[in-house]
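User: quick one, fold this
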Amino acid sequence: MVAADDAGRGSDIAGKLGVEPGMVVQELGWDSDVDETVRDAVEERSGDELLDEDADEVVDVVVMWWRDGDGDLVDALIGAIGPLADNGVVWVLSPKTGRRGHVEPSEIAEAAPTAGLSQTSNVSVSDDWAGARLVAPKAAKSRR
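Assistant:
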């Protein structure tokens, strides 16, 4: 059983990430260091389990756990947008400043346009993780 305080906080996390009931959410970059509260909140709000990197469904939201040393962020973003719905969102979740694996916000900001995405906002999703919201630019969408 989840305490009422935990449930409310978890719902706020999913709300920050724009997750709504019925949305299909894919998770990339899972490892033992991810914040399970974030994962649980997203699953609870969407009403389904998170899809892994092998899923071939169209997704509404991609939650990408990204740490310094994980590889080339541009390549990872290009891979993440493949199954993304036209109005989908990619959230790059990275460790906050001072945490192991911290990624400079400028690295995400520079990688996004190279991958064909625009950064729209940043949020704190937990004590250890921050999120950068990336979307396809409006002009690119209208040409599809």
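User: anything notable?
Assistant: The first helix runs from residue 4 to 16.
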